[in-house]
Write a structure and sequence with these properties.
Number of helices: 2
Helix content: 25-40%
Structural class: alpha+beta
CATH topology: Aminopeptidase
CATH superfamily: Gcn5-related N-acetyltransferase (GNAT)
Low-confidence stretches: none
Number of strands: 3
Strand order of the largest sheet: 1-3-2
Order of helices and strands: HEHEE
Shape: elongated
Radius of gyration: 13 Å
Distance between the termini: 18 Å
């Protein structure tokens, strides 16, 4: 959590207004963390191929206030 706080603080100091990231739909640990810190799925989805395996990625976003 400390790393997340430092990262978002740095982004704010450098005038960023939003965080956007992609996460594998099966990565429930990461999804729970992102939701706990304030990110939300915005409906964006994309398919990718990683190591000859098709995967689904979900887009998460958060406004930086």
């Amino acid at each position: 959590m400390q790393l997340w706080n430092i990262a978002t603080s740095n982004l704010k100091q450098n005038s960023f207004r939003e965080v956007t990231l992609w996460v594998l739909d099966t990565n429930t640990v990461a999804i729970k963390f992102y939701e706990r810190v304030g990110l939300a799925a915005d409906g964006g989805k994309k398919h990718a191929n990683i190591g000859d395996q098709d995967v689904l990625e979900l887009r998460y976003r958060m406004r930086l206030e």
